[in-house]
User: Which sequence fits this backbone?
């Protein structure tokens, strides 16, 4: 039994009742806080019914106390029921209170819907209520006076009495006897019954009598709920006006004292104020929960007493602090429901947003753990302990079990993120000040987490992955309303945002195309206009993707590396177990070390599964892609200085120079778009057809063709990767998600090939220390994109046009193509003889030591890896040459490149079909992508594609190092024997071989005719006879074809290493005339000699 309701409670369990004078002084000192009371009879004493002031001074308090003690008390006048015209006759049964205990008033519960309010009402009383049989007529007794009614209702509501003999009400509830109030009534000579004038002091006395270890707020809330129900049952037609006034005053006083319990504990002799937290954490249908109507009335008191507002804000801060120690595996719903309850009242959100703990001056961990909203956003299945719950014993889980856990995890997280968005949205809509504070909180989330993109991340200095992913998803949701398919609101995103005191900090970020000094100068020119909400959310979301989901996504690669390392390390440890198996002390140490490494491995696997599970959420990624499409279109509009949308044409090249506003943007503005689409292409291609539009193709092509707009070569190369990923076949998309668009989209038809060739050339020199190897990966992806679209003849026509209109550009491209083919073929084919030797040695390694064998195995593995990579690149390079020479053979026989092309083909043909071809034989050649017969067939096809050009035939025959007629014969024999070419191709190849032989004979004869070449006529670099001598800026003379070939690979003077172009050379016409005259003279002399010998022969 509650001791507060037991009048017989021993004195040790209940505080002593204060004397009347002390209670009067306390009450008068705080009376002004109660608000304006109902009108009282004129003869009422000032002690029992004072007129309330808004904020009395201390002098007023003292005056009132003096008046209360000096003025003699008047008898309390009770008007008999018969003399009261407005008295309502009711049964003397206590049906008012008993029926109220069964009714369901809407104010009895803080539930967010009416149905839960109704459920809550029946649980308020301390005991179950009986119901009267329907067929039994109610007993009708004598009329009840207003005084009796008042005493009965107030006693039943507040559970106290002035009559020491009546300690239980009609329903059996125990009543607390109020000795001071009872004495006051007795001194006045009035009946020991409660009335409106006594209620104020009676409530205070009852509240003061309650033991300090019980909740005063709980008692007062229960009283408020009961009085509210009784009030709701009164007729509203004016027939019970007196009763309504009494009930209204009782409700007002109860409300005031319940608030005083939160703000002025000394009023009740208590050391600490009451705590709202337990009531807020109760379920909506719990009897101790905060009623909605009570909360509304409390909010109405905010202007009168700031302490009430602070009490609500402090309560939520305490709930947040409690939540900070919980995870998704704990019972966190009560804390979340409390915040959801606050969202129904904008004034509460305003109070919370003004709390000192809403924002923080600390670091990222403080934001997550110590701010009010931080712990709500912190909840996530990405928390380490939660991930291990979803993926127990992760090393033993099969993929189906992992997939099931990931599905369950996504469902839970999606619901939580919906609630987080609703919370944040309520703050945004609660008012301008609250919206600004909420945006500031989001800004702290991104600004304090820049270190999440560092090479080495210290988890103690940044927010958790779960927190940042939730932050990103919620911001994505805020962008959703303005991300329509027609891009109608994209003009609302303000270019000048970063010059208007932006919330997002970008000073230390790498810019798209500006150094730090340029960027600082640009942003130093500020704009005082405020940014609109769309711009604020847009740039916050862009930053959140970079520091939030983007950083978490990049963590996957690190986890994969860690997992491989620990698996290998644990395997090596297990292999060493036998060494300590018989030594107990060392075995124990070994087991502890093994357990530690195993735990780290399992945590890494669980984290990887959890991150993959979160990021494979199709709905999350669809919303993210919608945002990235908007970013892509906005970037193109800014770079092109136009109103571009996907349904409009984009003019290329982009206008130069790039706008400063574009150049000074953070690099992640474009990187986020590329990374997001690359991830979805790789892992969720099924959502791409409905999510991607022409804007992504336009973005890639525009910045590849106008590559000067972007400074970072890796970022530019990622645009190629994006196109490459878009051509991967999947499902019924044989050309991938973008393949069909690239094939038929007019913008792509007009600009794609030029953009790819341009970047193919630029990839030769990226400026990075790994540029030599990076270029091969870039060019491999370019080949794949070209192969995907080559079936459209428009691209073949584009290649022809490039060779004619941009001759130098095209020659540079072909030269680099030849360089690549020469290098990768040589690197790949020279590895196979070494692999062949090592494999033979290992197959016959009977007497080889274990150490030597291990050394050779490691060497073999390294060679195999290199051979496989180079061979794959070689296959793709030759494939491109086949396509291009088939479509545009004459372009590959230009004087600048034809000799190099012929030499490259002859050298590799000699390797594949020459005397040393047997050294290429290795075990399992498919392992290295090595198919020698296919490779030989591709080389011969290139010969056939170019065989109609006499220039090419002469170049092949003039290759003194590698041209050998017997090698061509052997190649034809192999192709015929293996069926690699049809009869027509073989006949054509035979004809071509004869042409080579004839050209060789002519070349040899010409060399004999010329004889020794004068030193002045020789090219100083190649040693050949110059045909078109030119003077370099260094004044050295070389042949034009020599310097052209040199400049294709190295734009510097070969003698002084100073930059130069082909336009810097000057024809040496005088020397050319001498060479031509000398040649004519030598040829004429040789012809005369031949004629003379022929005459001698005929005469003989």
Assistant:
């Amino acid at each position: 039994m509650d001791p507060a309701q037991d009048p017989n409670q021993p004195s040790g369990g209940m505080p002593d009742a204060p004397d009347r004078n002390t209670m009067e002084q306390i009450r008068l000192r705080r009376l002004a806080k109660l608000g304006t009371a109902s009108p009282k009879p004129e003869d009422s004493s000032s002690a029992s019914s004072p007129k309330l002031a808004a904020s009395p001074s201390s002098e007023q308090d003292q005056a009132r106390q003096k008046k209360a003690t000096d003025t003699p008390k008047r008898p309390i006048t009770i008007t008999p029921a018969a003399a009261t015209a407005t008295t309502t006759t009711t049964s003397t049964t206590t049906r008012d209170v008993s029926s109220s205990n069964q009714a369901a008033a809407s104010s009895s519960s803080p539930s967010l819907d009416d149905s839960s309010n109704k459920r809550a009402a029946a649980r308020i009383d301390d005991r179950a209520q009986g119901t009267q049989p329907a067929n039994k007529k109610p007993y009708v007794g004598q009329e009840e006076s207003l005084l009796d009614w008042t005493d009965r209702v107030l006693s039943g509501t507040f559970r106290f009495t002035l009559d020491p003999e009546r300690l239980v009400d009609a329903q059996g509830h125990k009543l607390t006897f109020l000795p001071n109030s009872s004495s006051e009534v007795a001194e006045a000579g009035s009946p020991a019954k409660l009335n409106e004038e006594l209620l104020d002091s009676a409530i205070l006395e009852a509240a003061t009598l309650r033991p300090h270890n019980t909740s005063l707020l709980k008692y007062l809330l229960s009283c408020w709920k009961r009085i509210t129900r009784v009030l709701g049952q009164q007729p509203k037609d004016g027939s019970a006006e007196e009763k309504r006034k009494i009930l209204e005053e009782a409700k007002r006083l109860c409300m005031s004292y319940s608030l005083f319990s939160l703000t002025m504990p000394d009023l009740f002799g208590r050391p600490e104020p009451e705590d709202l937290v337990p009531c807020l954490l109760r379920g909506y249908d719990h009897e101790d929960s905060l009623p909605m109507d009570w909360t509304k009335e409390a909010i109405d008191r905010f202007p009168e007493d700031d302490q009430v507002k602070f009490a609500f804000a402090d309560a939520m801060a305490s709930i947040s602090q409690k939540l900070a120690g919980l995870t998704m595996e704990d019972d966190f719903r009560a804390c979340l429901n409390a915040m959801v309850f606050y969202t129904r009242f904008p004034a509460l959100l305003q109070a919370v947003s003004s709390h000192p703990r809403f924002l923080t001056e600390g670091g990222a961990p403080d934001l997550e753990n110590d701010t009010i909203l931080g712990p709500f956003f912190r909840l996530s299945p990405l928390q380490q302990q939660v991930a291990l719950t979803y993926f127990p014993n992760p090393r033993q889980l099969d993929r189906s079990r992992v997939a099931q856990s990931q599905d369950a995890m996504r469902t839970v997280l999606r619901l939580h993120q919906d609630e987080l968005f609703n919370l944040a949205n309520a703050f945004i809509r609660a008012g301008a000040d609250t919206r600004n504070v909420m945006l500031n909180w989001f800004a702290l989330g991104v600004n304090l987490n820049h270190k999440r993109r560092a090479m080495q991340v210290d988890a103690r200095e940044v927010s958790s992955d779960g927190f940042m992913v939730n932050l990103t998803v919620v911001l994505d949701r805020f962008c959703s309303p303005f991300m329509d398919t027609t891009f109608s609101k994209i003009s609302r995103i303000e270019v000048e945002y970063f010059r208007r005191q932006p919330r997002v900090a970008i000073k230390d970020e790498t810019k798209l195309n500006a150094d730090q000094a340029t960027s600082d100068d640009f942003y130093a020119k500020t704009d005082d206009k405020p940014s609109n909400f769309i711009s604020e959310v847009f740039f916050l979301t862009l930053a959140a993707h970079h520091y939030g989901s983007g950083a978490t996504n990049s963590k996957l690669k690190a986890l994969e590396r860690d997992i491989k390392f620990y698996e290998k390390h644990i395997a090596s440890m297990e292999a060493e177990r036998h060494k300590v198996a018989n030594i107990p002390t060392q075995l124990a140490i070994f087991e502890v070390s093994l357990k530690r490494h195993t735990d780290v491995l399992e945590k890494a696997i669980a984290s990887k599964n959890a991150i993959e599970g979160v990021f494979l959420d199709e709905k999350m990624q669809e919303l993210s892609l919608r945002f990235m499409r908007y970013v892509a279109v906005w970037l193109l509009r800014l770079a092109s200085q136009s109103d571009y949308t996907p349904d409009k044409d984009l003019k290329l090249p982009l206008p130069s120079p790039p706008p400063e506003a574009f150049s000074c943007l953070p690099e992640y503005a474009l990187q986020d778009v590329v990374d997001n689409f690359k991830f979805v292409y790789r892992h969720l291609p099924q959502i791409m057809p409905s999510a991607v539009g022409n804007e992504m193709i336009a973005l890639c092509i525009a910045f590849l063709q106008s590559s000067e707009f972007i400074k970072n070569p890796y970022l530019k190369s990622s645009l190629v990767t994006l196109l490459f990923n878009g051509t991967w076949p999947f499902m019924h998309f044989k050309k991938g998600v973008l393949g069909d668009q690239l094939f038929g989209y007019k913008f792509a038809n007009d600009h794609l090939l030029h953009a790819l060739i341009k970047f193919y050339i630029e990839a030769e020199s990226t400026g990075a220390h790994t540029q030599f190897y990076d270029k091969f990966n870039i060019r491999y992806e370019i080949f794949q994109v070209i192969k995907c679209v080559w079936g459209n003849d428009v691209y073949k026509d584009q290649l022809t046009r490039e060779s004619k209109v941009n001759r130098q550009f095209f020659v540079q491209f072909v030269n680099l193509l030849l360089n690549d083919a020469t290098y990768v073929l040589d690197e790949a084919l020279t590895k196979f003889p070494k692999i062949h030797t090592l494999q033979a040695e290992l197959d016959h390694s009977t007497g080889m030591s274990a150490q030597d064998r291990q050394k050779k195995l490691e060497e073999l593995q390294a060679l195999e890896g290199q051979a496989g990579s180079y061979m794959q690149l070689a296959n793709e390079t030759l494939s491109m040459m086949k396509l291009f020479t088939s479509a545009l053979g004459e372009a590959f026989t230009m004087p600048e490149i034809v000799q190099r092309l012929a030499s490259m083909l002859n050298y590799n043909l000699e390797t594949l079909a020459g005397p040393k071809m047997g050294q290429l034989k290795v075990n399992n050649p498919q392992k290295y992508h090595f198919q020698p017969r296919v490779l030989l067939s591709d080389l011969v096809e290139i010969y056939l594609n170019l065989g109609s050009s006499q220039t090419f035939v002469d170049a092949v025959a003039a290759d003194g190092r590698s041209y050998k007629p017997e090698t061509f014969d052997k190649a034809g024999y192999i192709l015929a024997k293996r069926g690699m070419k049809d009869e027509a191709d073989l006949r054509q190849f035979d004809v071509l071989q004869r042409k080579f032989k004839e050209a060789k004979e002519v070349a040899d004869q010409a060399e004999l005719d010329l004889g020794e070449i004068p030193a002045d006529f020789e090219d100083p670099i190649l040693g050949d006879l110059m045909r078109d001598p030119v003077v370099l800026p260094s004044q050295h003379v070389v042949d034009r074809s020599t310097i052209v070939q040199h400049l294709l690979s190295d734009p510097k003077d070969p003698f002084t290493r100073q930059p130069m172009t082909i336009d810097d050379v000057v024809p040496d016409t005088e020397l050319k005339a001498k060479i031509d005259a000398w040649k004519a003279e030598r040829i004429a002399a040789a012809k005369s000699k031949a004629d003379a010998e022929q005459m001698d022969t005929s005469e003989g």
User: Anything to note?
Assistant: The chain has a mean pLDDT of 83. The longest helix spans residues 533-575. The beta strands are 160-161, 176-177, 1029-1031, 1037-1039, 1066-1067. Residues 912 and 936 are 7 Å apart (CA to CA).
